[in-house]
Amino acid sequence: MRIEPLLGRSAPDAGLASHVSTWVWGPAEFIGLPSRRLVGKGVLTGLLGAGGIVGAGALGMWTGPTALGSGEAGLVIACVLGVRLAAIRAGRAFVGLALTLGICLALTAPQATAGLVLAHRGRIQEARVTSVEVQSVPQQSRGGHRYFCSVENRDGTPLRARIWRGCRTSTEPGDALAVLYDPLGRVPPRGAEGVRTGLWPLGGVVSLAGALVVVCAVAVIRSFRLTLSS
Questions:
Q1: Which of 50, 89, 133, 223 is the most buried (most CB within 10 A)?
Q2: What SS3 state is found at 40?
Q3: What is the phi/psi pair of residue 169, to 5°?
Q4: Three-class SS of residue 116?
């Protein structure tokens, strides 16, 4: 008996490959371009998620609630967004990517807003250096180290944040250091040297938010099913 080679995949193998592809990327059971309604639903999902994460971080830094300013509320919203995408059985690759972008956005938004707050209403004052600490920072090109100064106000009250802008090798305890601080005390102070003004702190936030909206939109669009799977 002569055995002819089999061409192509067998039916079980093709079914398994289709199932794995659907699980990873979503079924996308439509022909041609997706409908405007489906695209709108995907974009709306992304806008609500990204807007909620950014809004929570911005509101926390601007008005002061600790849970919002620390990024905790943004992390919760990012997790809710991930659960939402998983509930509609979106592709797991997109669910994981959306969750990763949401977490990064939740951690970035408060810091970017803090820079914007200081640029808007910050005041510069001189503080006295009380101690200098050096830490190894591998990504830094200047010798791989960064210096952090602990400072205090003129009345001797220590500031709650260590300053690295303007803190150098030559800086010693007792030296004066220019510090940019929030008069309302809602944002940790920063060194005044090298601080840029304007909307520059929001560049990273806008990029992350835009990427999150795109990923969510694609995830929702590709989750479309013509029939309910058993």
A1: 50
A2: helix
A3: -60, -35
A4: helix
Q: Mind listing the pLDDT tens digit for each residue in 29-54?
A: 888 889 999 999 999 999 999 999 99
DSSP letter at 189 equals -
Q: What is the DSSP letter of 3?
A: P
Say how many CA atoms lie within 13 Å of 213 toward its Cβ. Answer: 16
Residue that the structure tokens 């405007």 belong to: 36
Residues in the chain: 230
CB 160 within 8 A of CB 214: no
Residue 208's φ and ψ, nearest 5 degrees, are -65, -40
CA angle 104, 50, 74 (to 5 degrees): 55
Please calculate the CA angle 52-116-102 and round it to the nearest 5 degrees: 30
Closest CA to 198 of 100, 88, 116: 116
181-206 pLDDT per residue, tens = 888 877 888 888 766 555 566 778 89
Cα–Cα dist 25/94, whole Å:
7
